[in-house]
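User: Hi! I'm a student and our assignment asks us to look at how structure tokens line up with a sequence. Could you show me two examples?

Assistant: Happy to help. In each example below, the sequence comes first and the structure tokens follow. Example one:
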Amino acid sequence: NESTFKKLCYAEYKGFFHIGMVTRNDRDAIIQHGTMTMTRRSVLEELGWADWCICEDAELGLRVFEKGLSAAYYHDSYGKGLMPDTFIDFKKQ
């Protein structure tokens, strides 16, 4: 049994990934972020990784686009992230 909060989180995430990311991909307006981002090793070696940044995935995405490279969203999932159990955990995230 999941809490109402967790059900709301799932609904929000589902909308983001199943609608928002698909639409962004169709319009070549994708953003790079989060769990299961796949990046070519050569690109990561060339552009580096911002371990100083709490949003290091999005920061890498900016580097990718500034370099003139592209990104794509693939709807199939190859792993899982963890959703917060409570609103307090959500705020910490």
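Example two works the same way, sequence first and then tokens:
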Amino acid sequence: MRIALASGDGIGPEIMDATLTLFRAAGVDRHVEFVPVEMGKSVFERGNTRGMTDAAVRTVEDCGILFKGPMETPKGGGGKSINVTARKIWSAFANYRHFRSLPGVQTP
């Protein structure tokens, strides 16, 4: 299984590092390949009002799953929230948190 991974902005990378450490400890990395994608503040700062690169969009579409940390939304115009953009690009009507067990990973 491949999952597109956007670490986020601000505290996002720290949260994502801790989460990935937990995933590795649980053995999730034996079943999942995380594919980094570029989204968020650094993309907005380069003038991309969508906040995600074309390559990121293609990778998310190829993977079918996006796991992302918190993202900054530009203040005063210049771009929309990544969540709004993602819902529009992929015709999602809501953000949701999907949980499921992975084979070989012990869960309660």
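Here is something you could point out in your write-up. Strands lie at 2-6, 33-36, 66-68.
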